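pipeline: protein-struct stage 2 | run 1193 | Ferric-dicitrate binding protein FerR, regulates iron transport through sigma-19
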Amino acid sequence: MNNQTDIDIVIRYLEDPENEQHKTQLNEWIQQDAGNLDIFLDMKGMWHGDPLPAASAFDTQGQWQVLDTMLDRVPVAVLPEVAQQKSPRVIKMNRRYWWAAAAVLLIAGTWTFIGPGGYKTYATNQQQDSMQLPDGSMLYLNAHTQVRYARGFGKDNRHVRIDKGEAFFDVKQNDALPFIVNAPEVEVQVLGTAFNVKAANTGVKVFVQSGKVSAAYKGIEKKVILTPGVEASLRRNGQEIDTRTHKKNNNILAWKTRTLTFDDTPLNEVADALADFYNVQIKISNQQLADKKLLATFPNMSLDEVLDIMRKTLRINITHKNDLVDIY
């Protein structure tokens, strides 16, 4: 598959992301080469207006001037005639299409910074996964999580980016190279610790298991220092940082340990933990039950098994249909 075809596949998807055929073609192309995912993410970011890092040896301004000239002089692009001497195919290209094509050229010019040679991308679907980073730190990924780190990680920096999902970091101490996690609008910095970062649509949550970390909104002086047992919540497009101290038996890391523990926990908090762990919606129709307390441990059990035990232990009614659980 040549570069022009690659561009066509990505552009068609970006122009109409709901088109199933475009989704299929993009997915097949990404599966062909691990580096194609990095290329797609870079093009997607620039398509939506993210700034493009420029390599010092690359004349970005000059290339944009050349592109401008091209746009003024070339209203159409003509593909070469095929061997059967069919009539040339003419494609009208709008400025956005040319812009995306130019973006690919700029990516090539800064390949060592943002392309497949610049960082590695890891993503999970339904499964969980774990890996050891080049510096010896351990990274545990929840389902539906995507992270990136530079190929030079551990040499001159220890920067990791979590684009979405949830990850637990067990960081090897290195005072000379602080470990930094970048999440949407939020930066977390540590020297050596174990902590959890969850990047959701509403914001980012950081929970510390051991050591100390700082959490801050990017571009804002205000930050908070977190110690073991403390969780910080940083909202999207926000400036305030809310903190909460959890008791020892909490379920923030249940996705990693696969064990849910409730120590006289109110039913409304139980519902929140189950909803997060099993990715379902839970409604307590009878609010008089919200203060009922549960004392139980569920080691790697299915949702229906857990609900059956709760039903018998608390003597309550529970229905479970599809992704909706009703407690009444």
